[in-house]
Thioredoxin reductase (Podospora australis), 494 residues
Amino acid sequence: MQVTPFMTQNVDIGVRPGQRDGYPPHIRESFLSFFIKPLVFSGTHARKNRIVAAYFSLSLYASHSLCFFCFFEPFLSFWQRFEESPRRKATIMHSPRPFWAVFLLSALSSVLASVLPAKPLQQPDFDAVIVGGGPAGLSALSGLARVRRKALLIDSGEYRNAPAKTVHDSLGFDGVTNRYYRWLAREQISQYGTVAMTNGTVVEVKRVDTKESGWHSFFRVKTVHGGEVTARKVVLATGLRDVLPDTPGVKENWGDRIFHCPWCDGTELADEALGLLGGSLEVVPNMVREVLTLNTDLVAFTNGTDGEETRMKMGRWGGFLGLHNVVVDDRRIKRIVRVQGDYGDFDTFEKKEGGVFRVDFEEGEAVYRDGFLTAFPTEQRSRLGVDLGVKIVAGGMWADEQHGFHTNVRGVYAVGDANADNSTNVPHALYTGKRAAVYLHLRLALEDGDRELNQSSATAFKMKKRDVELQARNLWDTMNGRPGELLYAGEFDG
Ligand SMILES: Cc1cc2nc3c(=O)[nH]c(=O)nc-3n(C[C@H](O)[C@H](O)[C@H](O)COP(=O)(O)OP(=O)(O)OC[C@H]3O[C@@H](n4cnc5c(N)ncnc54)[C@H](O)[C@@H]3O)c2cc1C
């Protein structure tokens, strides 16, 4: 996979060996881990239910003790010798299998585990991870940076508009190169201290059980090289891929006079001889309506789809093609050959004489055109949304605009080309990214507020209980007589 280097902040998202489970190496590697891990584990569970904690702890110790005595032969032989010694006979345990010793230790540890303070919630590495660094992802990152959210953007650098030289219809940046546009955005965002960007391909986004994590939503995000980070929210800005036909000449010239969007590239070819490439006659009227203000010399290449049935389906819109002198050429295209001009040798408002491309067919005369408007299908660039369970509608990820493009999967947002609102351009990518950032930020604030309120009411409850106890103790001390006096009724705790 080709990755455009753009790292503006060096973020190490790989978890170093020995840190993954949060235990220091000397604990993890030593046999002490046999005892400490279950203790901490049950301590964590004790937050919810002490009986469950004790149960877990006991069963873990039981299995550990089995392993322990299976693998530590010297200890076993020592025990055997002890069993045969007269000292052993004096002990009160008449069947002191080694298991008993460990069992007692387990019981003690279980009790300890349930009274130990609970392990604090695992802190996520980031408030949000944004997957994809096109305009949608960058816009989301910028929105989060402005309110000091901790966010990481991971990008594999396969931008949809990479084949095109310049970006158009992006206010304030009309005609700048795509690379410059992205560079400037990154440069500006990198000035903010709480966000970071890195190259990489995300291979898995996994929702972690929210009850265990204690957060409203909690994700583990894995990259192709084994790096892993955690985040409370995920923004999928993973874009679309254009599915181009294998006809020779299409892929080679994609984005340079063979384009899909009049707003992006149409003006540059205004008034030139245009071909319409969409595969089917049915889609041609829509293409003509889109482009008529720019081009009137139109030939539709319909690749054997012009038949009675299709014309019936089109109804009166078939006549519309006639009204505008759109030529329908139904022959099968063999190849498209560029006969004039190399990539990027044209500029806005520059006009050329003659056709730039020759269209060769399986039979008959070739046709010359200056460029082509296309209607090829698209597909999701990434499977992350599907794997997470995001609903797919008409090839896009369903996202609720009213709630900042939040998908049906809690904590996951879908922005830019990849979502299903049927709009694919840079301004739309910016808008959706920004909207998701606003909603995501407010959602996190709401969740934090909720947690704070819960904690403060729990503290208030505890305070109340303690106050009542103190009052009772004070009253006892005042009313109670001294030891030896008639009114003495014993100590408060007695
Ligand atoms: C030839 C062409 C020219 C265009 N010209 C214009 C124009 O002039 N003006 C205009 O407004 N629009 C234009 N568009 C449309 C524009 O490119 C898109 O609307 C825009 O790029 C959408 O932005 P995005 O951020 O959603 O997706 P993209 O820009 O495609 O970015 C998606 C990013 O996500 C990354 N990604 C995907 N999966 C993963 C993963 N698993 N892990 C990490 N990263 C991942 C990809 O590598 C990519 O970098 C053009 C499109 C084409 C095809």
Q: What stands out?
A: The first helix runs from residue 25 to 29. The chain has 16 helices and 19 strands. Residues 166 and 180 are 9 Å apart (CA to CA). The longest strand covers residues 228-236.
